[in-house]
Amino acid sequence: MAKPKKRYVCSECGGVSTRWQGQCPDCSEWNTLVEEVGETKFAARHDLSGGGRTIQFEALDAPTAPLVRQTTGLAEFDRALGGGIVPGSAILMGGEPGIGKSTLLLQAAARIAKAGGEVVYISGEEATGQIRMRAARLGVSDSPLRLASATSVRDILTTLGHGTPPQLLIVDSIQTMHSDQIEGAPGTVSQVRASAFELIRYAKEQGCCLVLVGHVTKDGSIAGPRVLEHMVDTVMSFEGERSHQYRILRCLKNRFGAVDEIGVFAMESEGLAEVANPSTLFLSGREEAIAGSAVFPAIEGTRPVLVEIQALIVRLQSGATPRRAVVGWDSGRLAMLLAVLESRCGLSFSTAEVYLNVAGGYRLTDPAADLAVAAALVSALADKPLAADSLWLGELSLSGDVRPVAHGALRLKEAEKLGFRRATGPEMSGRGKSALAYGAIASVNALVDRVLGAA
C-alpha cells in the first residue's frame, strides 16, 4: 500500500501547501493551515479481472539436478560452508574492521580462478590498485580473476549481463552499493535492502554464487536491516581479536549445511593460513601444570576443539569490593557458578577477586564448560594444580548436580588424540572404545573432593 501523502489546507481560502507554516502563502492569514491526509486507494482484495500468471505446482519428489558444490581451495573455508560453495547461493560475511574479511575472500577467489573458475571481485571501498597491492603481498597476483571498483548496482548488473555469468561474484561491501531505483545515500536501510535484493536476484537467475561483505555495529551484529540476513542463504561471521593470531570463521545460518561449523585460520605476514588442528593452537604453552588451569573439550558444529580455561583468585586484605573479570565467557554464568560453589560446597569467594580467562582469545558459549570452570576456580582457590593430562566437562545446575552433555564420545575422542589420559564428567553411556580413564561424578561436591585430592 502506498504511503499517504500529507498536505496542508487553509481553512480560510482553501489554498494547499506541501508543508506547514504559520502564515498562509495565498491569503496571508495566520494559523489557518490544517493538516489533511491525501486520499489513498486501498483494496481489501486483489482485482483479478486483469488476469495474472498461473503458478505451476511441482511434486516434492520430482527429479531435480543435484547441486554440485565448488571447493574454494581453502579446506577450513569449505568446512565452515558445509563442503564448499553452492551455485546460485547468496552468502553474507560480517566481521570487525581489519579482521581479514577481504584477505580471506581474495585468497579464496584467487584459488578458484587458478582452478579454472570464473571469478568477479567488485570492491566499493578500495581502488583496484590497492587490491593489487594486497594481492602482491599475498602472492596471488597471477590469478586470472576479474577485478573492478564500482558502487552502482545498475552498472554492475549491466556489465555482468554482457558476458558469461561468473561462477563466483564477490561484492565488498554491500553498505557501499547504491541503487538508483531508491532515494537515499549508500548504507541506508532502503539502499542496502534494495541493492542486496537486485544482486541476489541476479545470482539466483544466473546460478552464480554471490558473496556479500557486510559491516558490523559496535555490538558485533551485521549493520543494516535485519531482513538482509533473511534474504541470503548463508550468514558467516569472521571473529577474533586483532591482537591475537587466530581467526575463526563461524557459520551462523546455512540452508545447505550444518550451523555453527567453524573454520580456523592464523593471520601471518603472507595472509591467512589454515589451522587444521585448532586444539593444538589453543593448548600451546602448557608445559607444566599450574593451579587454576583446566582443559575443556568444546564443540563447534561438528568439530571438537580443546581449550584451556584459566582462573586466578586474589584474596583482599581490606574491605574493598571484590572484582570479577571475565574474558571469553559469560560473566553472568560465572556469578551463578560462584554462588553454587559457595552455597553447595561452603567455599568462600566473597572476600576474593576472581579473574577468569579462556586462553587464546577464544569465546565459549557451550554450557558444558561449567565443570571445567568450576574445577579451575577450586584449583586456584586451593592453589593446587590439576593433572596436566586431565580434562573436565559437564553442565552444573543450581542444585549442584552435574548434567549430561551432548557429543560426549566425540569430545573424548579428540582429547585422546592429543594425549589426554583422564576425563571427569557426568554419567555417559556409549563412549565407545577409549583409552581414557573416565571418572563420572554426580554433584559439584564430588568435583571439589576430586580436585582437592588430585595428585
Automatic annotation (TrEMBL):
Q: Name one GO biological process term.
A: recombinational repair
What is the protein's known function?
Answer: Plays a role in repairing double-strand DNA breaks, probably involving stabilizing or processing branched DNA or blocked replication forks.
For the region Lon-protease-like, give the residue spans: 353-455
Q: Does the keyword Zinc apply?
A: yes
What GO cellular component is one of the record's annotations? cytosol
Biological source species = Aurantiacibacter xanthus
Q: Which GO terms describe its molecular function?
A: ATP binding; ATP-dependent DNA damage sensor activity; damaged DNA binding; hydrolase activity; zinc ion binding
Family annotation (InterPro entries): AAA+_ATPase, DNA_repair_RadA, P-loop_NTPase, RecA_ATP-bd, Ribosomal_Su5_D2-typ_SF, Ribsml_uS5_D2-typ_fold_subgr, Rubredoxin_2
Recorded hits in Pfam families, A to Z, give: AAA_25 (PF13481), ChlI (PF13541), Zn_ribbon_LapB (PF18073)
Note the SUPFAM superfamilies from the entry: P-loop containing nucleoside triphosphate hydrolases, Ribosomal protein S5 domain 2-like
Which positions bind ATP?
A: G95, E96, P97, G98, I99, G100, K101, S102
Motif RadA KNRFG motif, residue range(s) on this chain? 253-257
List the top taxonomic levels of the source.
Bacteria, Pseudomonadati, Pseudomonadota, Alphaproteobacteria, Sphingomonadales
| Comment on protein domains | The middle region has homology to RecA with ATPase motifs including the RadA KNRFG motif, while the C-terminus is homologous to Lon protease.
Identify the keywords attached in UniProt to this record, alphabetized: ATP-binding, DNA damage, DNA repair, DNA-binding, Hydrolase, Metal-binding, Nucleotide-binding, Stress response, Zinc, Zinc-finger
Coiled-coil stretches, from where to where? none
Q: Does the keyword Zinc apply?
A: yes
> What family does this belong to?
Belongs to the RecA family. RadA subfamily.
Name of protein:
DNA repair protein RadA
Domain called RecA family profile: residue spans: 66-216
